[in-house]
Amino acid sequence: MLxxxxxxxxxxxxxxxxxxxxxxxxxxxxxxxxxxxxMFDLNDEQERLIESGTEEVSQWLxxxxxxxxxxxxxxARTLWQQGHxxxxxxxxxxxxxKSVSELLTAVSPHLIPAxxxxxxxxxxxxxxxxxxxxLEWFESLQSKEAKQQRTQKALERWFGALTQEQExxxxxSIDLFExxxxxxxxxxxxxxxxxxxxxxxxxxEQLEQWLADPSIWWLPDYHxxxxxxxxxxxxLLFNILDSITDKQIEEVDEKLxxxxxxxxxxx
Length: 267
Hints:
Layout: H1 2-6, H2 9-14, H3 21-26, H4 28-40, H5 44-81, H6 85-115, H7 120-137, H8 144-159, H9 164-173, H10 180-200, H11 204-212, H12 220-242, H13 246-264
Helix pairs in contact: 4-5, 5-6, 5-13, 6-11, 7-10, 9-12
């Protein structure tokens, strides 16, 4: 949750296809600082550190991060237009993972100085923020029906409306795993406390390792759960690709074009 707010604020604005993306991008330092303050109740010096670091990252995004990502998205779109749907989806996943990893690498030297200033007051604020929102974050894991509804909404953001056949397969494919809700809650608590411990102990090395590989603070049960959900989701996704309609093909192509145009609007 932390990195989404502090590191991937850019992607949060891209995903909805925000028409005011360039306006928001110009104000990225302020937006990230504002969100960080909501999470940690920052003092003035901490806000200054966050804003200063985000300005540096914004420059990297314009000069390198966004051009590379748009090139990767364009390649995935070409594969999609050529009818290589499975290849395009796999390529898209790999490329987004690469871009997120590169963004974390660029962010790390600018974010860590601010994290190393966190104190007990900030830690208590973050615990409250987390506790107030974790039920909302994981509410779709309280029932099979809620998980299926969340999955269908995510798919329809890409493909548009699913066919009746696809909806039936979704209802048969997506299920809750044993203790899924409690595993997510326990993992959330575990990484949160490990993060706060590293920050309060001024453990720069641990924070650098975490930004390079967030999974170092995942519990074993959560590792297993992620792989189970990944397998489940991809079985469903590839079934949809096998039964994809012309309208859905157009929807995905338009979504990729929307991402590319949105990113290019700040260059």
